[in-house]
Amino acid sequence: EVQLVESGGGLVQPGGSLRLSCAASKFTFSFYWMSWVRQAPGKGLEWVSGISPNGFTTHYADSVSGRFTISRDNAKNTVYLQMNSLNSEDTAVYYCAKDLGAGGPRGQGTQVTVSS
Fold first, then answer.
1. 110-114 and 10-12: which strand pairing?
2. How many helices (H) and strands (E) would you count in the chain?
3. Which residues does residue 62 pair with via DSSP β-bridges, in sequence order?
4. Strand order in the sheet with 18-25
5. CA 97, 100, 104, 108: dihedral to nearest 10 degrees?
6. pLDDT tens per residue, range 1-57
7. Rg of the chain over CA atoms, in angstroms?
8. CB atoms within 10 A of CB 11
9. Are 97 and 4 in contact (CB under 8 A)?
């Protein structure tokens, strides 16, 4: 059974930064694409970013491109999301997910709130 545990969320002011982490276990992490997805209040699930198994290829949604950076450490079975220049539209529960896209298994999520 895939286990994914997100951390690093919190309250941040507009223009601020946060770094999310996701610890993965119970599958061979280095073999799989990983994604970050989010769900804003009252909205559906939105795919945010994905990273290839070796970390060399990354993809971003237009809404976060240039502001967010996904990375991974296969030695630590961890994927990260560095979020800069945050705005209120980034307020959501953020999940990491196995595979590329929003349809794979995901963790319990971490809340990110952008507010002054």
1. parallel
2. 0, 10
3. none
4. 3-7, 18-25, 78-83, 68-73
5. 10
6. 899 999 999 999 999 999 999 999 999 999 999 999 999 999 999 999 999 999 999
7. 13
8. 12
9. yes
